[in-house]
Amino acid sequence: MTIKPSLSEDQFVNMAFITHLTGLTDKWFYKLIKDGEFPAPIKFGRSSRWRQSEVEAGYRPALMHPGENSAMAMTHKLTVTPVEALS
Fold it and tell me: What does the pLDDT look like over 3-15, one tens digit per residue?
C-alpha cells in the first residue's frame, strides 16, 4: 500500500532540484514530458514546479522502463567505443 502525502506535506520542486536528484538534463525531462513519460509541471505564473512526490514516483518508471522510442530508451542504446579499437 502506498501512502500519498497530503498537499500540506508535499513540496513543490523546480527543475534544478529534479536535475540534481537524477543527474539528467532539463532537456531530457521536457522530452519525457512531451512523450507522456514524466508528469507535466504545475505553472505558477511563468514558473514551473512539480510535486516532489510525483517526481520521485514518476522518474523511476521512466528510467527503469522507458518506451521503445523514448528519450531514455535512446540513451540506453548508445555505446562507447574505446579509442584503441578505432586504430
Answer: 555 555 789 999 9
Q: Nearest to residue 34, comparing CAs of 61, 69, 65, 10?
A: 69
- Report the number of secondary-structure helices (H) and strands (E) in the chain: 5, 3
Which structural domain range is residue 70 located in? 12-86
In 3D space, the residue among 16, 85, 8 whose CA is nearest the CA of residue 49 turns out to be 16
**Phi/psi of residue 3, nearest 5 degrees:** -100, 120
Q: How far apart are CA 42 and CA 48, in angstroms?
A: 6
Residue 3 lies in a domain: no
Residues 6+ apart with CB under 8 A from 72: 28, 32, 37, 62, 63, 66
pLDDT of residue 77: 47
